[in-house]
Design a protein that fits this description.
single chain, alpha/beta, FAD/NAD(P)-binding domain, Flavocytochrome C3, Chain A, domain 1, four-stranded antiparallel sheet, 19 strands
Amino acid sequence: MDIKYIETDILIIGGGAAGCFAALQVYKKSPRCKVVVMEKAHIERSGCLAMGLNAINAYIHPEQTPESYVDFVDREFEGVIRKDLVLTIAKRLNEVVKEVEALGLPIEKNDDGTYKKRGSRSVRIFGERLKPILAEAVMKTTAKVLNRVVATNFIYDGKKVCGAFGYGVRDNCLYVIRAKAVIVSTGGASGIYKPINTGGARHLMWYCPWNAGTGYAMGIRIGAEMTSFENRFIPLRVKDVNAPTGTIAVGVYSKQVNALGEDYLGCHYQHLGGRKCLTQYRLFATLEEMKACRGPCYLDTTNLNDEEEKQLKEDYLNMNPQIVLLWASNGMGPRKKPVEIRGTEPYVVGGHCQAGYWVDTERRTTIPGLYAAGESAGGAPKKYVSGCWVEGAIAASTALNDIDDTSTTDIDGAIIEKEKSRLSGILNRTIGITPLDARERLQKIMDEYAGGISFNYMLHENRLLEARQLLQCLHKHTNEVMAVDNYNLVEALECIDRIDVARTLVEHLMYRKETRWACYQTRWDYPQKDDEHWLKYVNSVYDIETNEIKMIERPLQ
């Protein structure tokens, strides 16, 4: 395995929404700054936006204010959010949407030129090519883009992050990138729990299947403080194809109905807010209907007219074409049969929910030299794509200001050789555990003992204690994982990263002894919300010396 050395001012790990926007903001403010973007796929079609998007779900319309947006997010998350972070996002949402529109994003407009609404805080877009638009803008700068280079670990000297290691999938090289500042924007984590779809369809999931939580894991391994992992996200989605339900529920105002044709939110769950309930209760109510033998559950699309059906299909073609192909293949369009819905497996994300790095308002993590943006940054849920753009911009500005008087740090050759040996060891091992076996073992543990879909997402202490023990055992065996080629090595590294994230997740789920977010974090043994004791943040820091995870309580800010 050869070694390639690169020196830069700012290293951005992850070329998704936040990463691309951060790169653009650096050059907007400092055209001579040297930037490297490290992306495990190709920035043109990578991350959560790979298939496109049909709406920007965080936008401040004229009748709203940034403060009202904070209040909305606070209600949705039962009083536990970083209001300071959410406010910094809300104040710049409209600004960044305008900037991306100027790059070429088509946004649907009314006759008077205003953006067309799709819900109270969203606007309709034609976003199938959103990611290529962002990538093209980055490619026009002087940024060096390393496509198909997988981040493996931060370069950390015990005091600050000095860069990162990467593995070139196609050239089999170890990249050693020295940087004055590092922005991590690698997204959240999928594949930790057993997926709903199995076999060849296992990657057909809500979240990008190659978002393995690598950015989280790299931070955990150097002792960065993490927050709110217990606030998992479990989306309510169209069964099998995992298409977003909001496109139907908000886009064409369809009701959730059970097998009896009842609008069950309105009929049986008025005590939870009925059709205006919090997002997590839409999933909770659907599970309750299944338990009461009133399922399957659907979104009732049978009352759509021709124009509404056409609009619905166009919206999905901009974001999730599988469902349109399904309708075309079976001849059962949305007007002929309602669309069946169900929950998916849980995910760990910092955009829809709020797992991620503990950061200040300038997006500095607790490790000097390291900044977090987008899904990687914790504490600010419901940021969606526009919020990720804002955080990319904030992190970029902060990094630029902080590196004014700094220089790149020399890297101890022993650290480089240690990382090279780790990767080569996996690749050269001929007897060991395959990435497939490691992944399936992890997913089985998490599904059965840490609140997976097989147990209706329910949690309790004894099962979580078993999950902790099993994950500790699995973690010990990660030095036996083997790979047969370059791509298999990436799968092996992803498994190791997911195991590190899963260990932190279980500790968070165990520590919060209440039920605050229905389904996302439902404790059988502590079924009530307990504001007196748990209206606070649950954080954690991994102790490198003891291999233990220390839990930390932080007061509301």
